[in-house]
Amino acid sequence: MSQDVTALPDFDAKWNFGDPAASEKAFREIEEQTKATAGSAYRAGLLTQIARAQGLQRQFDAAHQTLDQVEAMLTDAMPSAESSTVRVRYLLERGRVFNSSSDKAKAKPLFADAWAMAKDDATLTFYAVDAAHMLGIVEEPDAALAWNEKAIAHAEQSDSEKAKKWLGSLYNNTGWTYHDKGEFDKAMVLFRKALDWFEQHGGEPQIRIALWTIARCHRSLKQFNEALVIQRSLEAAMEKSGEPDGFVYEEIAELLLAQGQTDVSKPYFGKAFEVLSKDEWFKANEAERLERMRTLGQ
User: Fold this and answer.
1) Using one digit for the tens of pLDDT, what is the confidence trace for 36-55?
2) What is the pTM of this model?
3) Measured between alpha carbons, how far is residue 131 from residues 44, 78, 135, 148, 195 in Å?
4) What long-range pairs does 191-194 form, CB within 8 A, spacing at least 24?
5) Which residue, 203, 201, 290, 198, is CA-closest to 213?
């Protein structure tokens, strides 16, 4: 018998992607609260999000162990209507853990399986868009572009408001794919679409990121003054909030350097290094970029 989960907490609503440790703590509390009442599908779905939180904390072995528990729960005993959702979530999170640990070869077929399973099921549209968006991350630029455009089309054509919530991120990701291909004008169109979307549907953090991205594209277009105006406004907002942003410092430094203001750029490279050297993901994935900040900040 399928369980009525409406009386159970909506664990997805507990996500704080800026603080995966806090998210895991919230999920663990729900796990404890519902262990006597939740069915296998609810418990397994919750575990997929615990695994995602662990992966974001770079606890990859722990995340895989959590997902092993989910895999063991995906049996015929789980109601079929619920098992489809759980299986797709399992595939997505297993793929994300592999991708976060720099193993795209193992991640890619998992995202492909999630897409194949979800793309024709109206109840799984949100996860189909998620899968296509992840394939847009792990594929090479040309294939990534095709997947990003497929994800956008799937979300825009959907009647699901939840699926449409992907659009801001998808416009941003597709813009970066064009940017990586050196097609900066096309990238700017997508980055501006992302800003428009976040101004209507997002919060202040997403708007700031979208503005930073537009400024970064201005730098690629060698429109240094336009870029610096935006980054200076982000710097002012950052200083007002008291929350340092290493990426803003880095961009201001690069723009000043590009304009020949080497001495003025040095303290900004130094500030960027000070902030971003504390970011474990950045240290693991952007070592060369971090070293550039350290060197140019001296």
Assistant:
1) 999 999 999 999 999 999 99
2) 0.79
3) 19, 23, 6, 10, 23
4) 191/217, 194/168, 194/169
5) 198
